[in-house]
Amino acid sequence: MQAVNLNIGGLLQNTGLLRNRNGISRKPLNIEATATSLSRIYQSVWRQFGSASPARINQMNDILRDSMISRRVVKKSEISLNYDDAVVRIVPSTASFYIQRRGFRTRKQTFGVGSAGKTTPEEPKSPLTFFSDLLVGKKTKTTEGGVEKWNQYEADLKKLPEGQQRTYTDGFVKGLLSNGTTGAGKDAKKSNTLTRFYIFLVFCIFFGYLTGRIRVRVGDRQIGSLFFSNPQEVNPEDVQVTFEDVRGMDEAKLEVEEIVDYLKDPEKYSRLGGRLPKGVLLVGPPGTGKTLLARAIAGEAQVPFFHTAGSEFDEVLVGQGARRVRDLFDKAKARAPCIIFIDEIDSVGSKRVSNSIHPYANQTINQLLSEMDGFTRNEGIIVIAATNRVDDLDKALLRPGRFDVRVTVPKPDLAGRVDIFNFYLSKIVHSGAIDPKILAKGSTGFTGADIENMVNQAALKAATDNAVEVTMAYLDEARDRVLMGPARTGGRIPDEEANRNTAYHEAGHTLVSLYTKDATPLHKVTIIPRGQSLGHTAMLPEKDSYQLTKAQMLATLDVMMGGRVAEELIFGDDKVTTGAADDLSKATQLAVQMVKVFGMSDKVGLRDYTADDKDSALVKVSDLSPQTAELIDGEINRVLQESYKRAKDILTTKKKEHQLLAEALLEYETLSAEEVKRVITGQKIKRPTPAAVKKSNEMKRNQPSLVLHLFEEEGRGKQ
Ligand SMILES: Nc1ncnc2c1ncn2[C@@H]1O[C@H](COP(=O)(O)OP(=O)(O)OP(=O)(O)O)[C@@H](O)[C@H]1O
Ligand SMILES: [Zn+2]
Question: CA 491 to CA 479: how far, in whole Å?
Answer without folding.
Answer: 18
